[in-house]
Design goal:
single chain; 127 residues; mainly beta; 7-stranded mixed beta sheet; globular
Length: 127
């Protein structure tokens, strides 16, 4: 059974950095675009970043552009989200997901194109 597992969350002060990892089992990530989502307390889940199957094309929502970077290592079957200059509003549970419904493995910011999510890792940014 395919599974994704996030790690790397934690507590950090505003302005700090964290690097999240997403490891896959039962699914070869190189066949899919990947995305990172977050859900803040009391809010809907939102996508923050996406990367194409080969790692050559990334997309970000405006709120994280210039601060977050997503990457992947298909040889390790892993994806990553480097988060810099963190803000309290970045607090939430972060999820990785595979875009099984995306054409050609292109990055996508549309949630309906994702078909598999991990269980999430919590990020808390204090002011």
């Amino acid at each position: 059974q395919a599974q994704l597992a996030e790690s790397g969350g934690g507590l950090v002060q505003a302005g700090g950095s964290l690097r999240l990892s997403c490891a896959a089992s039962g699914r070869i990530l190189s066949s899919y675009a990947m995305g990172w989502f977050r859900q803040a307390p009391g809010k809907e889940r939102e996508i923050v970043a996406s990367i194409n199957w080969s790692g050559t094309w990334t997309e970000y929502v405006d709120s994280v552009k210039g601060r977050f970077t997503t990457s992947r290592d298909n040889a390790k079957n892993e994806a990553y989200l480097q988060m810099n200059s963190l803000r309290p509003e970045d607090t939430g549970v972060y999820y990785c997901a595979t875009a099984g419904n995306s054409d050609h493995g292109d990055p996508t910011l549309f949630e309906h194109e994702y078909d598999l999510w991990g269980h999430g890792t919590r990020v808390t940014v204090t002011s």
